[in-house]
Amino acid sequence: MAHEFGHFLLHHDLQSHTDVGFRVNYRDRKSSEATDIEEIEANFFAASILMPRPFLDRMNAFEALTDDDQVNRLAEIFDVSVHAMSLRLANEYSYQRSF
């Protein structure tokens, strides 16, 4: 829902629609490429709502970049998938990772 709300707020030029039936748009190779700017923006919007950076900072979430158990714990706390949490942490903190 947060992703679709992002489209609603960010992409005013998109035509509104109401679902009459139910259509499921499964992810495919193209959607997995993360090349559609509107999808990237909606994903970032949703991640920012569901996993706010200030909350992650207070929990020292950057430390989870190298600890799968911490990623799993954070995903549980924020009630998101491990994949979503992993992406959020990588997007927010990958610059802090020591190589």
What can be said about this structure in brief?
With 99 residues, the protein is mainly α. It has helices spanning 2-10, 29-32, 37-50, 53-58, 68-78, 82-93.
Largest sheet: none
Strand tally = 0
Which regions have little confidence, pLDDT < 50, spanning 5+ residues? none
Radius of gyration: 15 Å
Please identify the structural class as seen in this structure: mainly alpha
String of helices and strands: HHHHHH
What is the general shape? elongated
* Span between termini: 36 Å
Helix % is: 55-70%
**What number of structural domains do the residues give?**
1
**Global mean pLDDT:** 79
Q: Strand-residue fraction? A: under 5%
Count of alpha and pi helical runs:
6
Helix and strand arrangement:
Elements: H1 2-10, H2 29-32, H3 37-50, H4 53-58, H5 68-78, H6 82-93
Task: Describe the overall structure.
There is one protein chain. The chain is mainly alpha-helical and 99 residues long. The chain has one domain (2-9, 35-96). The protein has helices at 2-10, 29-32, 37-50, 53-58, 68-78, 82-93. Helix 1 packs across helix 3. The longest helix has 14 residues, at 37-50.
